[in-house]
Amino acid sequence: MKKLLLAVMATTTLLFAAACGSNGDGEITELEIGTQTYTDPKIMAHMVEALVEDRTDIEVSIKKDISASPQIISAMDQGELHIATLYSGEVYNNHFDDDELEFTTDPEVTLDQAQRLFAEHFDFTWHDSLGFQNKYTVTIDGEFAAANNIEKISDLVPHADQLRFGTDGSWLERPNDGYRAFKEHYGFEFKDARGLQIELMYEGVENNELDVITAYSVDPQILELGLKVLEDDKNFFPPYTASLVARNDVLEEVPEVAEAIDSLTGQIDEQTMTQLIYEVDINKRDEQEVAVEFLKEIGLLQ
């Protein structure tokens, strides 16, 4: 695999100069950011776009709705994209040989492995955490949680056999990190477990057909429906810490890009990102408008 990766890296080095827009002096004049289909990487892309264009003469474009993170990584590797928001759990998604990494639910160890392995094999800089994760969580009606003093998943034990549970179909069936493993890990199961599309899951809560659902930790419906996110007190779910990731050749040639990315590190916790997504997905505001407004609020943009 290493030989293959080295060959790919050599090829992509040649492709990079052509893929990255440059002027007659060979200086970078254009960069492209890639995003997945969901909202948080799109908001982050517009933040990077605004900061880079404010601090340099580089023109930034954004390619949205790429179906999966591995496709973004491949495009970055080939020099077709230069920056993206990626999540630390991606390190476990068959990019590396099994003997190179250790599966763990420890967020810091997972992030360290992503930073080291993507630097070694792809020549990317995987920056430190932006401050939020976008991972599976277990949520329950906020009023029910308050009435029964439920703060963490283990607190569901005395109630589980009375609760109706909804999750996306793939998680219900996954053998290693899905519902089957969850039951063994936490030592309980719900009265009823249904696999549903995500939007139907939230409708089920709203229509009082479900009591407990899985959610992504920055889903705005958590705020809209008053759901309580329960602490994963036995560390079942893999971490998906969000970071900006960039090709090293871009960072070396344009240090202002690295400075712009670093200025966002640690600035956005999950509550903040959930609120930003809420503005886009629920209040139907423009992603770029929300991103720029936030940068002005925290003083990174005038």
Determine Rg (CA atoms, Å). 21 Å
Biggest sheet, spatial arrangement of strands: 2-1-3-10-4
Could you tell me how far the N terminus lies from the C terminus, measured between alpha carbons in angstroms?
47 Å
Please give the largest β-sheet: 5 strands, mixed
Number of strand elements: 10
Percent of residues in helices? 40-55%
Number of helices: 13
Stretches where pLDDT is under 50 for at least 5 consecutive residues are 1-18
Structural class: alpha/beta
Let me know the average pLDDT: 90
**Approximate strand percentage:** 15-25%
Topology at a glance:
Blueprint: H1 2-19, E1 30-34, H2 39-55, E2 59-63, H3 69-77, E3 83-87, H4 107-122, E4 124-126, E5 136-141, H5 142-147, E6 164-168, H6 169-173, H7 179-186, E7 192-196, H8 198-206, E8 212-216, H9 221-224, E9 227-230, E10 242-247, H10 248-253, H11 255-264, H12 270-282, H13 287-297
Parallel strand pairs: 1-2, 1-3, 6-7, 6-8
Antiparallel strand pairs: 3-10, 4-10, 5-8, 5-9
Structural notes for this entry:
The chain is of the alpha/beta class and 302 residues long. It is 44% helix and 16% strand. The protein is built from 13 helices and 10 strands. The protein has helices at residues 2-19, 39-55, 69-77, 107-122, 142-147, 169-173, 179-186, 198-206, 221-224, 248-253, 255-264, 270-282, 287-297, and strands at 30-34, 59-63, 83-87, 124-126, 136-141, 164-168, 192-196, 212-216, 227-230, 242-247. The strands form 2 sheets. It has a 5-stranded mixed beta sheet with strand order 2-1-3-10-4, sandwiched between helices. Helix 2 links the parallel strand 1 and strand 2. It is globular, with a radius of gyration of 21 Å. The N and C termini lie far apart (47 Å). Residues 1-18 have low confidence and may be disordered.
